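Researcher: Let's walk through a ligand-bound prediction step by step. First, I give you the protein sequence. Second, the SMILES string for 2-acetamido-2-deoxy-beta-D-glucopyranose. Third, you return the three-dimensional complex as structure tokens. Ready?
Model: Ready.
Researcher: Here are steps one and two:
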Amino acid sequence: MDWFLIVLVAILGFPGLSYSESVMKYGAVGDGIVDDTSAFQKAWEDACKGSSKMGSVNVPAGKVFLLNSLHFTGPCIPKPLLFIIDGEMIAQSDPQKWGNGENGVIPWLIFDQVDGLAIVGRGLLDGQGKSWWDIHCRDHPGPMMTFSNCGNVTLKSLRFRNSAQTHVLVMGSQNVYIDDIKITSPEASPNTDGIHITSSTAVSINHSDIATGDDCVSIGDQVNNLNVTFMNCGPGHGVSIGSLGRGGTEVAVENIRVSHVNFTGTTNGARIKTWPGGTGYVRGIEFFDIRFSSVQNPIIIDQFYGCAPTCVETMKGVHIEKVRYMKMSGTSATKVAMKLECSGESVPCSNLFMRDIDLSPADGIDSVSSLCSFAHGSAQGIIRPLSCF
Ligand SMILES: *[C@@H]1O[C@H](CO)[C@@H](O)[C@H](O)[C@H]1NC(C)=O
Ligand SMILES: *[C@@H]1O[C@H](CO)[C@@H](O)[C@H](O)[C@H]1NC(C)=O
Ligand SMILES: *[C@@H]1O[C@H](CO)[C@@H](O)[C@H](O)[C@H]1NC(C)=O
Ligand SMILES: *[C@@H]1O[C@H](CO)[C@@H](O)[C@H](O)[C@H]1NC(C)=O
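Model: Step three, the predicted complex:
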């Protein structure tokens, strides 16, 4: 099946799709009460082996499927394997019934070692995280949807809400295209990142709206070639490169572009955060065409993440270099609109560049300023508040 057809399917659904070709054929009930986990598992196994008629898993509209943890493992024969979600999938909401209750970090829907996968449709995935937000995160399920060691993945047009923690996790994967998705969780829900990417290359997130209790997009150690474009972010904690280098780990984050993004009422906007004592680099980062509306830290580099209140300058640190901030405007909800706090004299931030930055105080703030330490670079055009370079 070619990509054009996949897009068509995402837009139109499969008009001729009958229940006999969907998860219903495998015994799913879809009343939101009966647990349909085993029907989905069987539907996946058949589709993956190439023995289902359409080489796909189909979740029909108008039904609600209650599901416990599901492990969708490849490699699969159809390339791409289509997973069409037009109905609603809801996670088991009872912590007692979760994954036999033995281990809290069992993910909900995990795709593992699948090369060529298109998950498309107008459906809704609901993590029913409410019952977990109030209990210790040690007992939480894992992310709602995980891609682990996958390649050539398209995730399109779906809606996600109320994850117990991260909504979408991309790890150890390549060529992942996320387009036109919506993620929502309450502002007060803990650790509900929108999309977290780690140890992956060539990932793009386009035309998506994310409003959660944590980062809209967060980026872990070892990520190369990521584009985040045309996104509305907020409420939440913004786009965060990091936290990186925890416990002295090796960081290699490169080639990240965040453009055409609106941050509304978020705690951060363009953020890079590293733990003291990490090694490696963050370089080739670009933030371009960004609007802030009442954002607490619109532009921030924090190389002392996680060490407060006893932070000390260290000889080691993740080297941040070649970061470009261009065409960024809007309002800051705190006085320090631009904060660049780099590791120290032995590992300063280098080659930072700013052009056309115009930040003004949000209602209730008199003025805005910038604060920098060990940040070196250059600036062009209007820079408000004054840059430190
Ligand atoms: C993805 O597709 C490309 C081109 O068809 C192929 O070369 C590659 O091996 C596939 N897998 C991954 C993991 O990128
Ligand atoms: C990201 O954008 C750059 C520049 O437009 C492009 O060269 C690169 O291929 C894109 N990467 C992905 C994963 O879409
Ligand atoms: C993102 O969307 C824009 C505009 O709609 C489009 O030009 C661009 O190619 C898309 N990027 C990717 C990686 O799909
Ligand atoms: C960001 O906000 C502007 C102004 O309201 C709007 O024109 C633009 O479409 C928004 N961007 C996205 C990705 O929706």
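Researcher: And what stands out?
Model: The chain has three helices and 29 strands. Residues 230-232, 260, 262, 291 surround 2-acetamido-2-deoxy-beta-D-glucopyranose (ligand 4) (CB under 6 Å).
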